[in-house]
Design a protein that fits this description.
The protein has 340 residues and is an alpha/beta fold. The chain has 13 helices and 9 strands. The structure holds D-malate. InterPro entries: BUG, Bug_dom1.
């Protein structure tokens, strides 16, 4: 089996040697380029794993499963989701960085790929050199929500309440480097408080505890919160984008509600380990673009307050350009907020 070959070092060495020999032979045959195209012509021959850096049932998992099915259909294989939780998504990214660069392991990650370098001194990977980008997927607004019996009813009241009760109020998030952590940091900065934070392995379990009343409030993406907001299971204060979200038309923006500096939207992208052949990446990018044009995906995303990126953004180049830019932007913001 292919996966056994990849985990057996001696056999891997033999296969690499054999592949190298075949490549060298092919390169000597006139009319062939002996390059990556031979490798991609049969790709994929087996299921593809997508590592999701947060708990099942949360927003990253939801988006991955949404596009995984149509991507798998167009590739003729299954896209298998593996949730690897811990340390705000950095455990998963570290694992994906060291996977075989053959296209059979992808990573779905979000804005956290660009915030982690400023938040971790000992990050076990470099987002720019340990990965190849496949394409952007979507950009998701965040909402500020609370357990439904939490006292404040508006964002203005929330600000006043946490100022007065900062020793007791609890703020949930999905670990240092997660989107909910980033939004929570910006919120605390905007108000000028330091709250008691409660980290989870994803906002799926965090939201469950919020609904259960174990924590007071949190930021989370509309892909996770829309159902709970419209179902009245949580209290919602604002959406963190300049415009209101169509699926939540009554929810004011942070600007309307009095915190204009709190702007975050959570962009997601697909990655493969550095060294993955370009033509293998091209096959994955094409499947991603097919999935993002799928009407079922467009409708599901719209119901959850988001949309697929345009096709020209679902490319390795656009994705890398955004990643580079965002590492700079968030490095500066996080550095300044930490007094650096
Ligand atoms: C998740 O999938 O649980 C979230 O994306 C976590 C987060 O970044 O807030």
């Amino acid at each position: 089996m292919r996966r056994e070959q990849r985990t057996t070092p001696q056999r891997s060495v033999a296969l690499v040697f054999l592949a190298a020999s075949l490549a060298a032979l092919t390169a000597c045959v006139p009319g062939t380029d002996g390059g990556d195209s031979d490798q991609a012509s049969g790709f994929p021959e087996d299921d593809i794993e997508v590592i999701v850096p947060f708990a099942a049932g949360g927003p990253t998992d939801t988006v991955t499963r949404m596009i995984g099915e149509p991507m798998g259909e167009s590739l003729g294989v299954q896209i298998v989701v593996q949730n690897v939780e811990g340390a705000g998504g950095t455990v998963a990214a570290g694992q994906a960085a060291t996977a075989a660069p053959d296209g059979y392991t992808m990573l779905m990650h979000h804005i956290g790929m660009s915030t982690a370098p400023a938040l971790y001194d000992d990050l076990p990977y470099d987002p720019l050199t340990d990965f190849e980008t496949v394409g952007l997927v979507t950009e998701v607004p965040m909402t500020i929500i609370a357990r439904k019996d939490f006292e404040p009813n508006t964002l203005e009241e929330l600000v006043a309440y946490v100022e007065a009760n900062q020793d007791t109020v609890t703020l949930a998030h999905a670990g240092v480097g997660s989107a909910s952590n980033l939004c929570g940091l910006l919120l605390q900065d905007a108000i000028g408080v330091t709250l008691q934070e409660v980290p989870y392995d994803g906002t799926g379990p965090a939201l469950a505890d919020l609904v259960g009343g174990q924590v007071d409030f949190m930021c989370d993406q509309t892909t996770n919160t829309t159902g709970q907001i419209t179902g009245g299971e949580v209290k919602a204060y604002a959406v963190t984008t300049p415009e209101r979200v169509e699926s939540l038309p009554d929810l004011p923006t942070t600007t309307e509600a009095g915190l204009p500096d709190l702007q975050v939207s959570v962009w997601h992208g697909l990655y493969v380990p550095a060294g993955t052949p370009e033509d293998v990446i091209a096959v994955l990018t094409e499947a991603l673009q097919t999935a993002l044009a799928d009407q079922g995906v467009i409708d599901q995303m719209a119901d959850l307050g988001t949309a697929p990126v345009d096709a020209d953004q679902a490319t390795p180049e656009a994705h890398r350009a955004l990643l580079e830019e965002q590492i700079g932007v968030w490095g500066d913001i996080i550095g300044a907020s930490q007094g650096g």
